[in-house]
Specification:
Order of helices and strands of chain B: HHHHEEHHHHHHH
Largest sheet of chain A: 2 strands, antiparallel
Oligomer: heterodimer
Shape of chain A: globular
Number of strands of chain A: 6
Largest sheet of chain B: 2 strands, antiparallel
Structural class of chain B: mainly alpha
CATH architecture of chain B: Orthogonal Bundle
Strand order of the largest sheet of chain A: 1-2
Strand order of the largest sheet of chain B: 1-2
CATH class of chain B: Mainly Alpha
Distance between the termini of chain A: 36 Å
Helix content of chain A: over 70%
Number of domains of chain B: 1
Helix content of chain B: over 70%
Radius of gyration of chain B: 19 Å
Chain lengths: 355, 286
């Protein structure tokens, strides 16, 4: 019933040579793109890369760990705030960036421990992360009072923290990265993460993770403690989301509670669903497509974007639950199969006729 | 003395609110197993129905009934168009209803604008020394308990309740007994929606109506029903009590946001200690 699919071929094997060629071309394209385009394109592309990184973290956790976490935006926000607070306090950004990955790692570890080690089912996991997102956003919004100061930085509640410093070059702190520099940083971060996750899936850890998604009970009966692997996946994706958050702060020189609200969580889920959650390239592709569409919709001034997002979400869940890329992959596979069979039949017939 | 009364009132009010907003979800999620993330928007819809009905000149209590009926019918429409294709596909239900929630927020914002509008339901105040309590809030607490009791009686003592419980427990067996299970799924979802609409109409006078008001109620409702566990009504009641007391005490001592954070922490702790919910080990009941 489930025809083989070019985009979701067994991910537990070393990637095929054509995959390396494909990735090589993408990376080459990404690296030379700034030479032929204007600054505004770099700016637009950087934000797509940042959100792609975030949806990659969700797609990994959801598609391969079987856990849909709305909490990715929590770690996204945490990463951004950590970077902003550290770099504003100490006027130093390299360690701030490291910390922006580390703090979400710790928080996801704590949150994940309570949820995953309590062995709550995947659906309760989803709802708990959702609730945590809602409450945390409200908490951050409530910090507008002057009492809420970390070091010398006021949290400022829903106004967010502005004038977040640019990223300094580690060996030369006087120089900061700007526009095109940020483009390269986000691009490299995205593709390194993508390749690292792809490689992670062929390790022991990745294989056990996929087997847990397929059948948790059976994996446990084989002697694996599913909770450890699930927590591991949750923590990894939390760290990636934190990195994306810090990059967002660098990109816009601004962090705000909107980073972790439900609407941004909705966007990320959209990206992953539209692209196809059973692949790693899908979320990246989905981010580019949906970002484009929502920007166009917003510019066309056709009213509330959430209205169309909601409709899109319903349509995708009801009609294309697997997302664009896997559906396309299956379609092309079926088509090629048909063509091959057709030729094979004709060829066989011709053979017979010839005899 | 007066301070103690105010304190108790604060706790009772939190408790009443928790029961009110979780009751609809206790039926839709607790009994039917449908994760309805648009629950908050159902509440919002109830509040808007109530608002327009009072603006059209109907008395407040009639408007509450209109709101319940309106959201109930809306729920049945949603069940026919969306939910019925998704029974048993719990993750897809979650995503589709989330889409519905975004859609409803977008639609209501487009039509009525993002601004707030209040509903008037002044019943006066009761004074305890220097403190005053709005009588309406006391009525709200009372009605929350009445609705809980009525729902319990409906499931426990009527033929309708018996059929619904049987259908939810084992749809195939019920269908074999000649029950139109699809009809009962639809009616149960409608009833849950109607209760949600009632909650929306009841809280309309104490909060400002705005399209995004649903978000905070959906969070509260879900942690209550999930922490409650497998017996929807009993679980909802016990969880509401725990969260209501926590919220009441902390909100009174500190701010409302701290109260909500504490409720969340208690809920996460409860999930770790009792992963199957408070009533996870109970054998019988609702």
């Amino acid at each position: 019933m489930n025809p083989k699919n070019w985009f979701e071929e067994s991910h537990s094997e070393m990637p095929k040579p054509w995959w390396w060629v494909f990735i090589g071309f993408l990376i080459l394209g990404g690296l030379i793109l700034p030479m032929f385009t204007e600054i505004d394109v770099h700016l637009d592309m950087s934000i797509i890369f940042i959100f792609a990184l975030l949806s990659l973290s969700m797609g990994f956790l959801w598609g391969y760990g079987g856990m849909l976490s709305f909490g990715q935006t929590i770690f996204f926000g945490l990463g951004g705030y950590t970077y902003a607070i550290w770099s504003l306090n100490f006027n130093e950004t390299t360690f701030g960036l490291i910390l922006a990955v580390f703090v979400p790692l710790l928080v996801s570890c704590a949150l994940g421990y309570f949820m995953i080690y309590g062995r709550i089912s995947n659906i309760y996991f989803t709802v708990t992360t959702l609730v945590t997102t809602i409450v945390l956003e409200k908490a951050v919004r409530a910090t507008s009072d002057e009492r809420f100061v970390i070091g010398s930085v006021r949290l400022k509640g829903q106004n967010g923290i502005s004038s977040v410093p640019d990223l300094q070059i580690p060996w030369n702190p006087d120089e900061t990265l700007f526009l095109t520099g940020v483009y390269y940083v986000t691009f490299v971060a995205l593709f390194l993460t993508y390749i690292a996750l792809r490689m992670l899936l062929i390790t022991h850890f990745g294989r056990v993770l996929v087997s847990i998604r397929e059948n948790e009970n059976r994996t446990e009966l084989l002697g694996y403690d599913a909770r450890r692997y699930k927590l591991g996946a949750f923590v990894i994706s939390g760290g990636i989301a934190g990195l994306a958050g810090a990059l967002y702060g660098i990109w816009g020189n601004f962090v705000a509670p909107e980073m972790m609200n439900l609407n941004s969580a909705a966007n990320i889920v959209m990206y992953v669903i539209v692209g196809g959650k059973s692949t790693l390239i899908g979320p990246i592709f989905g981010t580019a497509v949906v970002q484009r569409v929502t920007t166009e919709l917003g510019m066309a001034g056709v009213g509330q974007v959430t209205l169309y997002l909601g409709l899109m979400l319903i349509i995708f869940v009801m009609v294309f639950p697997r997302g664009i890329l896997p559906t396309l992959g299956t379609l092309t596979f079926i088509t090629f199969d048909k063509i091959r069979n057709y030729y094979k039949n004709n060829f066989d017939k011709g053979d017979k006729d010839g005899q | 003395m007066n301070e103690i009364i105010i304190y108790l009132y604060q706790i009772a009010f939190s408790l009443g609110l928790f029961i009110l907003i979780s009751l609809g979800l206790a039926i839709i999620f607790g009994m039917m197993g449908v994760i309805n993330l648009a629950q908050g928007e159902f509440i919002m819809l109830g509040a808007y129905f109530c608002l327009f009905s009072t603006q059209a000149g109907f008395p407040f209590w009639i408007s509450v009934i209109f709101a319940s009926l309106g959201v109930g019918i809306f729920g049945i429409i949603v069940e026919r168009l969306l939910i019925r294709f998704l029974y048993g596909r719990i993750m897809d239900t979650l995503l589709a209803t989330w889409g519905l929630s975004l859609f409803m927020v977008g639609l209501v914002t487009t039509i009525f604008g993002p601004s707030e509008a209040g509903v008037e339901a002044q019943l006066g105040k009761i004074w305890f020394g220097d403190y005053s309590i709005a009588t309406y809030n006391l009525v709200l607490i009372l009605l929350a308990f009445v609705m809980l009791a009525l729902t319990y009686c409906l499931w426990r003592f009527t033929k309708f309740g018996l059929i619904v419980r049987g259908t939810m427990q084992n749809p195939n067996m019920s269908a074999a007994m000649g029950i139109n299970t699809k009809l009962y799924y639809m009616l149960t979802f409608g009833l849950g929606s109607a209760l949600t609409g009632f909650a929306g109409a009841m809280i309309a006078p104490i909060v400002g109506n705005q399209p995004t008001m649903g978000v905070f109620y959906v969070a509260k409702a879900f942690i209550t029903v999930i922490s409650g566990g497998q017996l929807p009504l009993m679980g909802t009641f016990i969880a509401s009590t725990i969260f209501g007391i926590t919220d009441g005490i902390v909100s009174f001592a500190s701010t409302q946001v701290v109260g909500e954070i504490c409720v969340l922490l208690v809920a996460i702790l409860l999930l770790r200690l009792l992963p199957k919910g408070i009533t996870g080990r109970f054998k019988r009941g609702f």
